Amino acid sequence: MIATTAPRMARTLNANHRDALMGLARQVGVEAGTRLLEEGGHADRFWILRTGTVALDMHVPGRRPVVIETLGYGELVGWSWLFKPYVWQLSAEAVTALRAYEFDAAAVRERCEADTDFGREIEHWVGEVLAHRLLAARTRLLDLYAPYGSGPPR
C-alpha cells in the first residue's frame, strides 16, 4: 500500500512553515537494503522521500517482521522523533535506493518550541500521519492474524 503523506503536508503546513521546515533539511542518498530505523532505537532524525520506496515493518514475536506499509515519493518516514521518549515504534528499510530530505529531529523540535505556530502545524501534520499509520498497522495485522482478515464479518 502506498500512503499519501505529501498531500497531508501540503494541506497542513502553510507555505512559510513548509519553507522553514525544508530549510532544516539536508539531501541524502540511501542504498537499497539499508535499515533507516529500528523499533526500540533512539529517534533522532526523520526523512521525507524524494525517490524510492521504504517498507515500514514491526516485530511480531515468533515471526519475521511484518511489513505494515510501503512509502514512496513525498512520504514522511519516522514520527517517533516528535514524542518523548523519542523511541522508534516501527522499523523501516529502503526497498529501493532512495533520495530523501533528512532532518535532525532536535533542530526541528527546537524550531517548534521557538515558533509555536510552526510547532502546532508540525504536530498536526505528524498527528495525521500517525493516525494513518496506526490504521494501516491495524488493517495489516487483522489481514494476517484475524480469522476473517480485515474484511466485513461473515
Automatic annotation (TrEMBL):
InterPro entries: cNMP-bd_dom, cNMP-bd_dom_sf, RmlC-like_jellyroll. Residues 9-78 form the Cyclic nucleotide-binding domain. Pfam families: cNMP_binding. This is Cyclic nucleotide-binding domain-containing protein. It comes from Streptomyces kunmingensis.
